[in-house]
Amino acid sequence: MSDCQQGKKACINGIQMYYEVSGNSCAAHTIVLLHGFLSSSFSFRMLVPYLSKDFRVLSVDLPPFGYSDKTKKFYYSYKNIAATVLQLLEEIDIERFSVAGHSMGGQIALNMMLQSPEKIDKGILLSSSGYYARAKRHHILASYLPFFPVYVKHYLGKTGVVGNLRSVVYDQSLIDKTMIEGYAKQFESTEIFPALARLLRHREGDLPEKSLQSIETPCLLIWGENDKIVPVNIGKRLSIDLPHAQLVVFKETGHLVPEERPKEVYEEISSFIN
């Protein structure tokens, strides 16, 4: 029997972390879901009902996104975000799990595999970012300017939520009022923009090949053939650099794989874990 979805908060590493627990509390296996950039646990709303049939599911709002804190005191490097998620799992007594990360969340998942491989059974990368370098020095220096958060707000507002969704979804008919409002909610708090400036400043870049090649965790890579944000070539490259990886590519699918192909993603994950 599946339990209802519950939203909770915990104080971890000096910030309030928001997470949602759903699925069967007696399930033998737990899956931790990590969303991408400018997103939240909302992006897994179509996938969670499927996963909840077989697994205990934990969806985490990575700082500074969703309902997690957007404080100026947090260090927003991938390494620190990964360590903070691991601390959260330890705090709520989840000792072993599989981790699934979408887009930027894939890099957080990979960092977790490096930091605590003994805790992670399987890794699932959903259109994961990969091989992106750190921001250029002049952008990092600009992030210290007082008006930079205003620039970030203006830059993101140029295309708007609908414009951004059109670039990440293959089937445009999927973009409805619920989807638009869910992703727009991210920007209701003005605190998000200074935090995004800090994320730009602190982000150390994606894991290099040497680090990827040292990851022993079995990984399933799921990609959309029509992904314009993280092209499928990144998935192919990751499948080579990760020692124990397999790649699945869905046709007529963009970057938002959990939203566009939830049933198929669930089937691939279930088969991979079981």
Describe this protein's structure.
- It contains eleven helices and eight strands.
- It is α/β, with parallel strands linked by helices.
- Strands 1-2-4-3-5-6-7-8 form an eight-stranded mixed sheet, sandwiched between helices.
- Strand 5, helix 3 (104-115) and strand 6 (120-126) form a beta-alpha-beta unit.
- Helix 2 (78-91) packs across helix 3 (104-115) and helix 5 (148-168) packs across helix 7.
- The radius of gyration is 17 Å and the shape is globular.
Which secondary-structure class do the elements indicate?
alpha/beta
**Could you tell me the strand content as a percent range?**
15-25%
CATH topology: Rossmann fold
- What's the CATH H-level homologous superfamily? Alpha/Beta hydrolase fold, catalytic domain
Strand order, largest beta sheet: 1-2-4-3-5-6-7-8
What is the name of the CATH class? Alpha Beta
How many strand segments? 8
Q: In the CATH hierarchy, what is the architecture at level 2?
A: 3-Layer(aba) Sandwich
- Indicate the overall shape: globular
Supply Rg.
Answer: 17 Å
As for the number of domains, it is 1
Report the mean per-residue pLDDT as an integer: 95
Distance between the termini: 19 Å
Helical proportion, percent range: 25-40%
- Low-pLDDT residue spans: none
Number of helices: 11
Largest sheet: 8 strands, mixed
Q: Helix-strand pattern, N to C?
A: EEEHEHEHEHHHHHEHEHH
Features:
274 residues, 8-stranded mixed sheet, alpha/beta, Rossmann fold, AB_hydrolase_fold, AB_hydrolase_1, Hydrolase, 11 helices, 8 strands
How is this structure best summarized?
This protein has 274 residues and is an alpha/beta fold. It contains eleven helices and eight strands. β1 and β2 form a beta hairpin.
